[in-house]
Amino acid sequence: MKKYFAALTTTALISVAPFALAGPSTELTVSGVITPVACTPTLSVGDIDLGSISYNQLEQEQNTLVGSHDVSLSMNCDGSTGFAIIAIDNKAGSGIGDGFGLGLNDGNPVGFFTPLIQRVTADTAVVDPIESNDNGVTWARTDSAKPGIWLSAATPSSTTPIDAQIVTVDFKVNTYILRADELTLVGDLDLDGSATFEVMYL
After folding, report:
1. Domain annotation for the chain: domains and CATH numbers
2. Which UniProt keywords apply (predicted)?
């Protein structure tokens, strides 16, 4: 920076010196690209297989928990950065409440899965999960990932998203089938849930 200003000063002095004559010139162009920090999200388990579930296993008057699985979402970045993780329900329209859908049966939802947050670490420090339902304007603490809601992390005394380079979110993914008396089953019914986790830079 010091050399840069010295060169500018010299140029200014030459340009205002008396009797200076204009001569041939050449141009120096400086170009480049500022690249944002890149983050890569990965899941410890990308496919949860519940196997075959008998209709007789389903509760008649309440939702049936048919699976509970540990899944970790890791985010590794080139450098420390502010971030939000957005969970997208690829079966939107078949979910119930804040749950991710498992598809439709005769046009009606059959169940849902919920990623409950067990623990969050940012650069090895334990931090609190926070969420925003207004695209990052305001944040509040949370205990689960929800479709379309921004998820980030904060220190225990704050709800402001922190910068981090390596983040791990440990989930307990609970899967439920709706109460049997609300289902119309004709033959086998495939459960087809899917969610995509995207990283947004803050």
Report:
1. 37-45+56-201 (2.60.40)
2. Signal
